[in-house]
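Sequence only, no structure available. Ideas?
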Amino acid sequence: MEFFAQHKTYDFMKVSRFFIATTLSLALLSIILFFAKGFEYGIDFSGGTIVQLKYEQKAPIDKIREDLSKDKMFSGALISEFGSPEEIQIRFASTSGGVSEDVGDKVRSVLSDSGKFDVRKVDIVGPVVGSELRQKGIMAAVLSMLGILAYVAVRFEWSFAVASIITLVHDVAITSGALILFHVEMSLDVLAAILTLIGYSINDTIIIYDRIREELKSTKDMELMHVINTSVSKTLSRTILTVLTVFFVVLTLYVFGGEIIHGFSFTMLLGVIIGCYSSIFISAPFLKVLGFSVEGYKAKLALKEKNKIEKEKMRSQYEKGTV
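Reply:
I predicted one. Tokens follow.
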């Protein structure tokens, strides 16, 4: 399926400066927001206990808050609706005093006169484990980007590699800024979504880079901006189809998946949109910013082909015994 004519070239680079200036400004604001405010870490990273309850009727939040305040174990507990008026989530910093103490039983005992309810879920994470998960999550993101940097540098050129990393940092920064702005808790699900987006974004970028490389090999055009416009135009239908497929699937998860995967689906929705336009308007134009030279690239290709021919010639002479 083709949304755009293959033979038509769209002038994406004409508006690239506007997109670069705008989105890099947003990325910078996101970084400032991160250092000024920071993430709201979920239980996975901060430690604590989350108890999810489902009442047969509307949950009496005021009564629940009053009953919990009478027990020191639930000191400072946060009570909020979880998807519907009948379901609530209780979050508090302390954890179970020992393996013999059941938090679910404790909650049933304390809230026995608040109405009929079921304990749907109890999650307990210690602060040490939460800190370790946070460190390993950051390490996973950094190592993935370093791996991508090495892969792209070997497969293409160093300028392609640097441009791809700038694009990934841009995508992660803006997505993270949106998570902070909309008060989405940073949990393992959200971290998984961010790592997924890193892979999704680099895949889109690699497709465009591969098309640019093939275009450089086949065309005599020495104008980089025109080569980029041609390459992006030829991959545009594929990019739009991929984005729409992922977008509608994630949108379905966001609307119908429930509160439990809200953070994951929200992060994916943002990331898919950001990754799409960054692959087109950020990663490719940055080749020009980084000083990529069509003449230099073609000279390298010519030298590589010359060396290949010379090696084949030497091998042929060796096989014939003339060397």
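The two ends are 55 Å apart (CA to CA).
Hope that gets you unstuck.
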